[in-house]
C-alpha cells in the first residue's frame, strides 16, 4: 500500500488525525488545561508526543526488524494490529457526546502531557502493532517515504489536538458537540478499512510462509 512519499504521508496523516481526535487521557488533558488556563497550555500538552514517542518508535522498529525473518510471527503481529485498529474503530463508532468536566489543576502542562502519554498504553499498542510495521514498509520505499509517514502522522496527531485546544478555548468543550460525534464515526469507518488491510496483509504473510 505504501509505495512512495505521497501514499506514506497520506497513510500517516489519516492515522495521526484519528489518533489526534480520539478520546483518551491526552486529549482530555488538552481540554482540561485549555479550559483551566489557556489555549497555549493545551497546545503544550498536545506537543508532548514529540518528546515521548521517539524511544517507543525505535524499540518497536527494532522488534519488527527482528521479526522480518519470521513471517509467521510478523503475520501474528500484523493480525494483532488489525485487532487493535478494530477496537479503536468500535470506540469511535460508539462515541456519544458528553460534556467535558474541567478540573482545577496546576500548570506545568508539558510535563503533565509527557507523563500522561508515557503512562498510557495507547502509544505502545499503536507503535508496536500498527505504526512500526507501516514505518518499516515506508522505509522499504525509501527514506523520503519514511520521513513523509512520520511527518504526516505527527503533524496531524499534534495538529488535531492543537485544533481541539483552540476550538475549546474559543467556543467551549468540543467533545459535547454533535459535529464531533460525526467526525469520530467517520474516523471509525476509516479505521475499519485499515484494519481490513492489516488482516489481508496478515493472511498474505501466513500463506507465503507455508
Task: Describe, in plain words, how this protein is organized in 3D.
It is built from 9 helices and no strands. It is mostly helical and 210 residues long.
Total separate domains: 1
Q: Kindly name the structural category.
A: mainly alpha
Regions with little confidence, pLDDT below 50 for 5+ residues: none
Give the overall shape: globular
Largest sheet: none
Q: Provide the gyration radius in Å.
A: 17 Å
% residues in beta strands:
under 5%
Helix-strand topology string:
HHHHHHHHH
Distance between the termini: 23 Å
Mean pLDDT: 81
Tally the beta strands: 0
* Number of DSSP helical runs: 9
What is the percent of helical residues? over 70%
Provide key terms for this protein.
single chain; mainly alpha
Give a short summary of the structure.
The chain is mostly helical and 210 residues long.
What order do the helices and strands come in, and which of them pair?
Blueprint: H1 5-21, H2 25-36, H3 39-46, H4 49-66, H5 71-93, H6 109-118, H7 122-140, H8 143-171, H9 178-208
Helix pairs in contact: 1-8, 1-9, 2-3, 2-6, 2-8, 3-6, 3-8, 4-6, 4-7, 5-7, 5-9, 7-8
Amino acid at each position: 500500500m505504501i509505495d512512495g512519499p505521497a501514499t506514506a504521508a497520506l497513510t500517516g496523516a489519516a492515522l495521526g488525525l484519528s489518533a489526534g481526535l480520539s478520546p483518551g487521557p491526552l486529549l482530555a488533558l488538552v481540554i482540561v488545561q485549555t479550559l483551566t488556563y489557556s489555549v497555549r497550555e493545551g497546545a503544550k500538552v498536545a506537543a508532548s508526543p514529540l518528546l515521548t514517542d521517539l524511544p517507543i518508535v525505535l524499540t518497536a522498529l527494532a522488534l519488527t526488524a527482528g521479526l522480518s525473518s519470521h513471517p509467521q510471527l510478523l503475520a501474528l503481529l500484523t493480525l494483532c494490529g488489525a485487532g487493535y485498529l478494530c477496537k479503536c474503530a468500535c470506540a469511535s463508532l460508539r462515541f456519544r457526546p458528553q460534556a467535558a468536566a474541567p478540573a482545577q489543576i496546576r500548570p506545568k502542562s508539558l510535563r503533565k502531557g509527557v507523563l500522561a502519554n508515557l503512562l498510557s498504553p495507547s502509544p505502545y499498542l499503536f507503535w508496536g502493532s500498527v505504526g512500526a510495521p507501516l514505518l518499516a514498509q515506508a522505509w522499504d520505499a525509501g527514506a523520503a517515504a519514511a520521513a513523509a509517514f512520520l511527518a504526516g502522522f505527527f503533524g496531524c496527531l499534534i495538529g488535531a489536538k492543537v485544533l481541539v485546544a483552540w476550538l475549546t478555548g474559543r467556543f467551549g468543550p468540543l467533545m459535547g458537540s454533535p459535529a464531533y460525534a460525526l467526525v469520530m464515526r467517520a474516523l471509525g469507518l476509516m479505521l475499519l478499512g485499515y484494519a481490513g488491510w492489516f488482516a489481508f496483509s496478515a493472511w498474505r504473510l501466513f500463506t507465503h510462509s507455508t
